[in-house]
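Figure 2 data, in text form.
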Amino acid sequence: MQHRADQRAGLAYGIAAYTMWGLLPLYWHLLDAVAPSEILAHRMVWSLPVAVVILAVLRRWSWIGPLLRQPKRLGLVLVCALVISVNWFLYIWAVNAGHVLEASLGYFINPLVSIAFGVLVLRERLRPLQWTAVGVGALAVVVMTVAYGKVPWIALGLALSFATYGLVKKGIKLDGIEGFSAETAMQLLPALGFLIYLGAQGQSSFVGGGVGQALLLLACGVATAVPLICFGASAMRLPLTVIGMLQYLAPTFQFVLGLLVFHEEMPPERWAGFALVWVALVVLTWDALRTARRGRMQLAAAAARAGEAAATEAMASVAEPATAQPPGLKP
């Protein structure tokens, strides 16, 4: 019962995290009068105090000392901070420039790019259906490029930057809140310096945009940290296959917002590209579910065989004293 309760809680946390990420375009749209670079800087500056409060509540400080004594891991944290900064900026700019649909495409194709990175960088071997999914996803990019006459660079930029972020984080080996805290600590000084410069130039939207806008900018840290906390709680309670399916919620919400709320154009060629991506994701999800089911069956069979072997050994050990001859006697 406790396991089922944990899974239900994990599902609720996961849905909350990806729903909040999916609805973020509404938040960034409220700040469309502010330059994306300033929004990004506020997001960086106000995320760190939120992270520190969470660390204080959880009393998680022991990771800081070992991290500071490992220059290689610190370098990887710096790379993560730079890459996620690019991803955040591009996403905020895309939303406020009217490219929500293409931004959603970026997060739809992100799993396919991550798989491609696994092959090219980590030398992982793909199953046939994974190859099929990656191929269909690549075809979708080709279709959109030919139809539009240009590469969908926003979608590719978001997918590549986030896949790179995930790849580099594998080498850091920090949990969600610890990694987030380390990255925002690296982002703090450049972001704070930029905001001070804007203030000195009289160009600060935080100061000159009214109380409402200042509160929205200040709350960027909460909008960044809360979904991450929910995601971390979900990842602790759910299998990776379920997390993998939940991740499609965010770009789905973004797609719906771009289509129905922001009324972006959706010509036939864009529908064709999205349809191919969705086909690729269905193939990928089916393969993941089938592989996970096969793994569970193999694990159950192995456990059953181990149980049978243990029972046989126990029966043999019980029967042995009854049939054994006393020492020193011969039949």
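Caption note: The first helix runs from residue 2 to 30.
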